[in-house]
Design a protein that fits this description.
The complex is a heterodimer.
Chain A: E1 5-7, E2 10-13, E3 19-24, E4 31-37, E5 43-50, E6 53-56, E7 65-68, E8 75-79, E9 88-95, E10 103-104, E11 108-112
Parallel strand pairs in A: 2-11
Antiparallel strand pairs in A: 1-3, 3-8, 4-5, 4-9, 5-6, 7-8, 9-10, 9-11
Chain B: E1 4-7, E2 10-14, E3 19-25, E4 30-38, E5 44-51, E6 56-59, E7 62-67, E8 72-77, E9 86-94, E10 102-104, E11 108-113
Parallel strand pairs in B: 2-11
Antiparallel strand pairs in B: 1-3, 3-8, 4-5, 4-9, 6-7, 7-8, 9-10, 9-11
The chains are: A mainly beta, B mainly beta.
């Protein structure tokens, strides 16, 4: 029973490029959450998605960031025109309907040079 | 706005010692509180989940308590081992937030010396 799968695990982008992070939830889970962990900071909630719907994006930066969870395929967190301040670990998590127990992936480490 | 604080930020103990990690939160209207473990360069592993109606949860050498009235939770680790070395995070889920919107503390980095 595979857990939450994230890829790539490590990604290096130059300033101004786009970063795409992918997340496949645990089998049977239809709720996906993205978190960001900046250096020396705690994890911060970004967005909560269900299939084809954004439920809560209160933690998403207003510009350059977007997320989707299509009917087929993984959830994607997209960062356009990356800047050095976007360098962080991005964690995806998933849960079943109740959302009580949330399982985290291993994270994607983005470095912007 | 909910804020979660963990003290101390780092802790070093000799193997075999019992220890307590502290977590405080500012808004007592929480749905649940969770403790996670994070190893360097890795994701989070859920350790214990305490519902708002519960006072404590136990799993093996770990015991977590919750006191909503004082806004505090503690994680007790008995007979610590070097393998317990990791960063321990607590996270609160508010009634006012959407599910999965966990508010994390910055963690306590634990080092258990052999």
């Amino acid at each position: 029973n595979a857990g939450v799968m994230q890829n790539p695990r490590h990604l290096v982008r130059r300033r101004g490029q786009e970063a795409r992070l992918r997340c496949s939830p645990m089998k049977g889970h239809s709720h996906v959450y993205w978190y960001r962990q900046l250096p020396e900071e705690g994890l911060k909630f970004m967005v909560y998605l269900q299939k084809e719907n954004i439920i809560d994006e209160s933690g998403m930066p207003k510009e350059r960031f977007s997320a989707e969870f299509p009917k087929e395929g993984p959830s994607i967190l997209r960062i356009q025109q990356v800047v050095r301040g976007d360098s962080a670990a991005y964690f995806c998590a998933s849960s079943g309907t109740s959302g009580n127990t949330i399982y985290f992936g291993e994270g994607s480490w983005l470095t912007v040079v | 706005k909910q804020e979660v604080t963990q003290i101390p930020a780092a802790l070093s103990v000799p193997e075999g010692e019992n220890l307590v990690l502290n977590c405080s939160f500012t808004d007592s209207a929480i749905y649940n509180l969770q403790w996670f473990r994070q190893d360097p360069g890795k994701g989070l592993t859920s350790l214990l989940l305490i519902q708002s109606s519960q006072r404590e949860q136990t799993s093996g050498r770990l015991n977590a308590s919750l006191d909503k009235s004082s806004g505090r939770s503690t994680l007790y680790i008995a007979a610590s081992q070097p393998g317990d070395s990791a960063t321990y995070l607590c996270a609160a889920m508010d009634y006012g937030g959407s599910q999965g919107n966990l508010i994390f503390g910055k963690g306590t980095k634990l080092s258990v010396k052999p």
